[in-house]
Write a structure and sequence with these properties.
The complex is a heterodimer of chains A (424) and B (470). Chain A has 424 residues and is α/β, with parallel strands linked by helices. In chain A, a hairpin with a 2-residue loop joins β15 and β16. The longest helix of chain A has 18 residues. The radius of gyration of chain A is 23 Å and the shape is globular. In chain A, the strands form 2 sheets. In chain A, strands 1, 2, 3, 4, 5, 14, 15 and 16 form an 8-stranded mixed beta sheet that branches. Chain B has 470 residues and is an alpha/beta fold. Chain B is built from 12 helices and 17 strands. In chain B, strands 1, 2, 3, 4, 5, 15, 16 and 17 form an 8-stranded mixed beta sheet that branches. In chain B, β16 and β17 form a beta hairpin. Classes of the chains: A alpha/beta (424), B alpha/beta (470). At the A-B interface, α1, α2, α8 and α11 of A face α9 and α10 of B.
């Protein structure tokens, strides 16, 4: 038997069993609290959680009767992390159409398509990512071409919204997702130029409800016009998926003309347009790992994108470019890599906590730690951006989440077999 | 013939194509040229290098503190304490730095699925027949793939480039040194055996059965497909051997067997000259493939992806089969639904287990060290004792073993190729960066002095890339 295996047998007994989400009173002691607010980072701080809310935040707090005490041992406590823009809850498995709901393929432009109606809070990815310290994310639809001869989607993918990883939707976080550039050119007649032509027409239809058009010339249904009107009033953000510098400039010009509230998603070449983005106060939701010229939209991709944008005063949040929802827990590693390539550590953490919460209008509930709020936070074993750290305790909306998922149950079953074989 | 090939023969590491060169075949008309697309890689001259006072992970399970590594004439000359620098040596102050063997990725598609991923570059899958054992990945490799540079920056010195997994038999792989070159031959790892890429499960089913309504459409179809091919290959080998016997006996009328590229590959795999690498996710399928390997008398070098390897960790160890895995990727298709973060640690924990961290990705290959760190952390979290000196083997010695090149690289031992990475800190960290990457003793990456121009011709003259790595 290997020594690794012997040690494992001794320690395996200490593993946590299944438990339900637990609400009550908690005192987290001796933590380095990254509040992500003006209060900054508090050393040797305590956090008192009663009735799910952060009742107090400070030094040497007293534990009330019956409170569970968690000793952070000086390690970091952060707001629960952002998992990025993904198909969480609308894609159980890749490559299986019967387990996916994220793409509308009716062949017509339907901004009223709301992917949240398909959201499955029991999807196994929810608990898996939660165990990795992810407590909120944005569920997005994706524009996809149809199979040969079958209808597909359009450049307006539809609406999505933010959720917490206890499976609850965050109200007021609706956003509209639009996909541009080479990746969407099959949805716009083969040219990215037509993408702006189509968008102009759609917004024009929405803004001119009495416009008389023969029905076969319309892009939008009445419900679609209504939906787009709400977004064009700037009440909620429109997120444009776009990579190339020249395309980002086109989007900025379009948004200025239409007076839209927008965010850029992707933005592999955003660093080349940083001054314009900063001036327009448009945030960029980027993939820090995108550093190869995967297409002719991304020839300028670099690991320094985040650092350069941050230096130029552009607000940045992180998301993987691929909306596949299974490994959102890896996003903190991507943030660490951005830090290793010049981004200040605090900006790296903000890009997966406060900034995305602000972009999607949920910063009053998630993304920072403040007295009076429902507890959305994580106690870490070490630096939250470090690959050797783990999330020790995860609180979502005031509840301590169980340390179990389908994956931990698989693990326990087969660890037990490995143990028995080793003992033979 | 390079001196490296000679070295291989001298130490007898290979049973592959190179071995045929010293064992003249009586039947010259049947045998292909010993190495028809030979390596032209040349070890460049380099100054001796002494890396001193570093933390050294040897790849053999040892960790040396405040230790030195001496590289001379492209080889590791010595590893130990208080080594003296030869005259004219480059001396690297290793205080605070960590030294490891060059990283080895057993599963890469760089060059065959390069960036940019446009149709004209899409050369990884000959998805026109379920068995294309006749194709060779090296004939698709585009040496200008910018991904080679980003992999080098991540400390990768050696890679196996595989065909894709659309087919039951995808074709031959090639092992490359990560050096800048105009031709793939100039990157080809001298003397390394080729691999045979096979694929289980969903991909062949989907590409042929679901998309084209042709064989195979099921996992039982996959098995029937492999077995029919192995039967043909056995027969081909038998005919060749019969012919060779006749020639040897002086039979002037012996009729040579008609050469077949597909069967050449399969026969070489049966003989162990080409190493079998099989893409396979599910535990039950891997076990079935192991039975098939016994049925036809060959060895599986490694299962790749092996998301369920943890379910049969003991069986894999018992059969001497490596599993090449990711740390945490799962759920991207049904056969990857049972992926867990402890997979690598559990394969490693089975006595005799051979765990490998692989990428299958132009992103993942840039940070195999972090992938290993995550797997190490997940394993420690359930009680396994996995120090860095153990985990480093997952991306150095173990992949070298699976590729049949462990006798010449993969660890820091005297006499081996000086494929070495100097890290700015503990490599099992998200913040770790390679300061120097040596391949055969030559500095191929120096973080403090990045090249003024991109290595890839593709990036030259692209305004967006000026001043940008890679």
């Amino acid at each position: 038997m290997t020594s690794a295996l012997q040690k494992f047998i001794v320690l395996a007994a200490a593993l946590l069993g299944a438990q339900a989400a637990f609400s009550g009173s908690f005192l987290i002691r001796n933590a380095t609290v990254h509040t992500m607010t003006a209060a900054g980072t508090l050393k040797s701080a305590d956090i008192l959680i009663t009735d799910g809310r952060i009742a107090a935040l400070g030094a040497a707090l007293q534990a009330p009767q019956g409170a569970q005490v968690i000793d952070a041992g000086g390690q970091p406590v952060t707001p629960g992390l952002f998992g990025g823009l993904s198909h969480l809850g609308v894609e159980e498995i890749g490559l299986e159409p019967s387990a996916q709901d994220y793409a509308l393929k009716l062949g017509s432009m339907r901004p009223e398509f709301d992917v949240m109606l398909a959201f499955n809070p029991d999807s196994t990815s929810v608990a898996v990512n939660r165990l990795g310290g992810v407590t909120f994310g944005v569920v997005v639809p994706t524009a996809a071409a149809g199979a040969t001869g079958a209808p597909g989607g359009t450049i307006i993918a539809g609406q999505g919204a933010a959720v917490t990883l206890d499976g609850a939707a965050l109200s007021g976080s609706r956003a509209l997702f639009v996909e541009l550039g080479a990746a969407a050119s099959a949805l716009s007649g083969g040219s990215r130029a037509a993408q702006y032509m189509l968008l102009r027409q759609a917004f024009s239809e929405a803004r001119t409800p009495n416009l008389v058009l023969a029905s076969d010339q319309r892009l939008l249904t009445p419900a679609g016009r209504q939906a787009l009107t709400e977004f064009s009033a700037g009440a909620a953000p429109i997120v444009f998926g776009v990579e190339r510098a020249a395309d980002i400039r086109q989007v900025l010009a379009f948004a200025a003309r239409e007076k839209l509230r927008i965010a850029i998603r992707g933005g592999a070449e955003a660093w080349r347009v940083a001054p314009e983005l900063a001036a327009a106060r448009v945030p960029v939701i980027l993939d820090p790992l995108d550093d190869l010229p995967e297409s002719f939209d991304e020839v300028g991709a670099t690991l320094e994108n985040a650092a350069r944008l941050d230096r130029a005063g552009v607000r940045i949040a992180f998301s993987f470019a691929d909306p596949e929802p299974h490994n959102l827990r890896k996003l903190r590693q991507a943030a660490g890599i951005a830090v290793a390539h010049g981004l200040p550590w605090q900006a790296g953490l903000a890009a997966i906590t406060r900034v995305p919460a602000e972009i999607f209008g949920v910063a009053d509930r998630v993304g920072s730690i403040e007295t009076g709020r429902l507890a959305n936070l994580v106690v870490w074993s070490g630096d939250p951006l470090e690959v050797t750290s783990v999330a020790r305790n995860v609180f979502i909306s005031g509840k301590l989440e169980p340390q179990t998922s389908r994956q931990t149950e698989l693990r326990e079953r087969y660890l037990e077999r490995l143990r028995q074989n080793a003992a033979r | 013939m390079t001196r490296f090939r000679f070295l291989f023969l001298a130490i007898g590491v290979l049973s592959g194509c190179a071995a045929q060169a010293v064992k003249p075949e009586p039947a010259a008309q049947i045998a292909p040229a010993a190495e028809p697309y030979p390596s032209t890689y040349q070890v460049p001259a380099s100054a001796p290098t002494l890396i001193e006072h570093a933390t050294v992970l040897t790849g053999t399970g040892e960790r040396l503190e405040d230790a030195d590594v001496l590289l001379v004439d492209g080889k590791i000359k010595a590893v130990g304490k208080g080594l003296a620098a030869p005259a004219g040596a480059l001396v690297i102050d290793g205080h605070g730095k960590w030294v490891t063997p060059g990283l080895i990725d057993v599963h890469s598609h760089l060059g065959v699925y390069p960036s940019p991923a446009v149709r004209g570059n899409d050369d990884g899958n000959e998805a026109t027949s379920p068995s294309t054992a006749n194709v060779w990945a090296e004939h698709s490799v585009w040496p200008q793939d910018p991904g080679f540079t980003t992999a080098l920056i991540g400390g990768v010195t050696t890679m196996q480039i595989l065909p894709g997994s659309a087919n039951l038999f995808g074709g031959r792989s090639v092992v490359l040194k990560n050096v800048p070159a105009v031709t793939y031959q100039a990157m080809k790892f001298p003397g390394a055996p080729q691999g045979l890429k096979m694929a289980c499960g969903e991909n062949p089913k989907r590409v042929y059965g679901v998309q084209r309504k042709q064989f195979p459409e099921t996992r039982m179809g996959n098995m029937a497909g492999y077995r029919a091919q192995w039967i043909e290959a056995r027969e081909y080998l038998r005919e060749i051997e019969s012919y060779e016997r006749k020639v040897k006996a002086g039979d002037k009328d012996a009729k040579p067997v008609k050469r077949d590229l597909r069967l050449d590959t399969l026969a070489a795999a049966l003989k162990g000259e080409i190493l079998v690498h099989q893409h396979c996710y599910r535990a039950d399928e891997m076990a079935t493939v192991l039975d098939m390997a016994q049925e036809f008398g060959y060895h599986v070098a490694a299962f790749h992806h092996a998301v369920e390897a943890y379910k049969i960790a003991d069986l894999l160890a018992e059969r001497g089969v490596c599993a090449a895995m990711w740390a945490d990727w799962w759920g991207f298709k049904m056969e990857s639904y049972d992926g867990i973060q402890e997979n690598i640690a559990m394969v490693d924990a089975a006595p005799g287990g051979c765990a490998i961290v692989h990428s299958d990705s132009s992103e993942g290959i840039q940070r195999l060290n972090q992938e290993a760190a995550k797997a190490m952390t997940a394993g420690r979290n359930v009680g396994f004792n996995i120090p860095p000196e153990r985990a480093i083997a997952w991306l150095t010695a173990n992949p070298a073993k699976a590729l049949g090149i462990l006798k010449v690289t993969g660890t820091l031992e005297a006499g081996k190729m000086a494929d070495v990475v100097v890290w700015n800190r503990d490599p099992f960290s998200v913040y770790a960066l390679a300061d120097y990457v040596f391949i055969d003793g030559a500095v191929r990456y120096d973080r403090a002095h990045p090249p003024a121009e991109p290595r890839s011709d593709f990036l030259l003259g692209q305004p967006a890339a000026s001043g940008v790595t890679p």
